[in-house]
Amino acid sequence: MKKVLIVSVALLLGACMSTDPYTGQQKVSNTAKGAGIGALAGAVIGAATSSSDDRKKGALIGATGGAAVGGGIGFYMDKQEAALRAKLEGTGVGVVREGDNIRLVMPGNITFGSDRYELLSNFYPTLESVGLVLSEFNKTNIRVAGHTDSTGADSYNQTLSERRAASVGQFLISQGVMAGRVMVTGYGERYPIASNDNEGGRQANRRVELELVPIQ
Questions:
Q1: Comparing 119 with 1, which gets the higher pLDDT?
Q2: In the structure, what pLDDT confidence band is assigned to residue 136 with cuts at 50, 70 and 90?
Q3: How far, in Å, are 6, 59, 133, 143, 192 from residue 199 at the CA level?
Q4: Which residues constitute the domain of residue 8?
Q5: What's 103's domain CATH number?
Q6: Radius of gyration of the chain (CA)
Q7: Are 171 and 116 within one domain?
Q8: Are residues 104 and 193 located together in one domain of the fold?
Q9: Nearest residue to 81 (alpha-carbon basis) of 16, 31, 10
Q10: Which of 9, 87, 143, 183 could form a disulfide with 211, with the two C-beta atoms 3.0–4.6 Å apart?
Q11: Half-sphere exposure of 121 (CA within 13 A, CB side)
Q12: Same domain, yes or no, for 175 and 104?
């Protein structure tokens, strides 16, 4: 059975190697990672639910089925990531891949005016592009999180972060993204990504993040 698992996963990973467009290096795609994990889980389940004489066959069937499920999610998110990177190139919005999730980091200086929660009009086209991709790839939930720097009172920053997240969420809904997919949260100053001791760090902390999570 060990040989079955090793061969199944090795073939899946080998078939799903890709070239990183930024570094030119070969890497295992997220599709392959998902397929490998799915294959391993499927093989174990297939073997466990088969009789002793049929365990090898059960493991192979389980590995194939598990790979299809795991690889399917990874492939879907790979496509969505590629579409977002193409749309957002040069906009200042960061695209970060974390396993099967995708995080979009929208700096406050290109999204909102100082101490405001209304979206800047020149940011509309960028957010419209995000809305188009999210409408096309509708098998993901969207977590919109607002963040601030540490300047000002905690309660004020909390409210401002909530309003900024709500502004982004409402805009996406106005672009055709289903409201049931959008969850809005404000975190105030609780989760800085840089030091609040200098202006550059404070500017980085003033942001809205979108986390795209596949619907299982």
A1: 119
A2: very high
A3: 52, 57, 33, 27, 13
A4: 2-84
A5: 3.30.1330.60
A6: 21
A7: yes
A8: yes
A9: 31
A10: 143
A11: 0
A12: yes
- Which pLDDT belongs to residue 114? 87
The residue behind tokens 């949260």 is 185
Q: Give the tens place of pLDDT for each residue, 14-41.
A: 545 544 443 445 555 565 555 555 555 4
Residue 17: how many CB atoms within 10 A of its CB? 11
Amino acid letter, residue 155: S
Quote the number of domains for the chain: 2
Query: Do residues 63 and 95 share a domain?
Result: no
Residue where the block lists tokens 């093989």: 43
Q: Which two tokens stand for residue 197?
A: 């001791």
Cross-strand pairs, 135: none
Across all residues in the chain, what is the average pLDDT?
Answer: 82
- Across the beta sheet with 207-214, the strand order is 94-98, 101-107, 207-214, 140-147, 182-186
DSSP state of 120: P
The reply to whether 67 and 105 lie within a common domain is: no
Give the C-alpha distances (Å, rounded to integers) separating 184 from 33, 164, 166, 170, 191: 30, 9, 6, 9, 16
Provide the pLDDT for residue 11.
46
| Farthest CA pair distance, the chain | 70
Query: Same domain for 163 and 107?
Result: yes
Instruction: Determine contact, residues 62/44, Cβ cutoff 8 Å.
Output: yes
Looking at 84, 108, 124, the residue that finishes a domain is: 84
Q: How far apart are CA 56 and CA 58, in angstroms?
A: 5
Tokens 């920053």 correspond to what residue?
157
Looking at the fold, whether 95 and 179 belong to one and the same domain comes out as: yes
Question: Phi and psi for 96 in degrees, rounded to 5?
Answer: -120, 125
